[in-house]
Design goal:
By secondary structure, this protein is mainly alpha-helical. It has three helices and no strands. The longest helix has 30 residues, at 93-122. It binds zinc ion. Zinc ion binds at residues 22, 24-25, 27-28, 47, 49-50, 52. Residues 22, 24-25, 27-28, 47, 49-50, 52 line the site of zinc ion.
Length: 142
Amino acid sequence: MGYFIHTMPNTPKSWAMLHCKCPRCRRGDMFKGGVYRFGSNKILDRCPHCNLYYEIEPGYFYAAMYVSYALNVAEAVTIALLTFIITQNKTSPWLYLSTIIIGCIVLSPINFRYSRVMLLYWLSPKIHYQAQLDTDDQAGNV
Ligand SMILES: [Zn+2]
C-alpha cells in the first residue's frame, strides 16, 4: 500500500486486537474501563470513533460463548502443562483441578473480552477494516 503517500500509517491489526479496539477503524475502544475492574466489564454499544454498532445482529454475542469455551480449553491445557512442569506432580488430580479452576476464574475477564474481539475480527465477514476511518479525526455517522 506504499502508493497512498498522504495517508496516516495504519494501525496494525495485532495491536488493535490486543488493545480491544474497534475492528472497523482500529481506533475506538470496544469496552468500558479496565480488564480487572469488575462490574464495569461491559462491551460498548457503538464504537466511539466510527460509530460501528458492535452487536451486528440481535444475540450476536452468544456466539462469543463458543470462542470463550475454546479459549478456556486452551488455557486449561496450558495451565495443566505448566503445573506439571513446575511441580512434577503425577499423583494428585486435585492439584490440577484447583490450578485449572483458579486459572480460569482469574482469566475469565480476559476471556470475556478477547472472545468478543476474536468474534468481531475473525468470525464476522460483514465487518471489514476501513483504513479511511483509521484517522485521528472523528468520522461520525458512517
Ligand atoms: Zn470504530
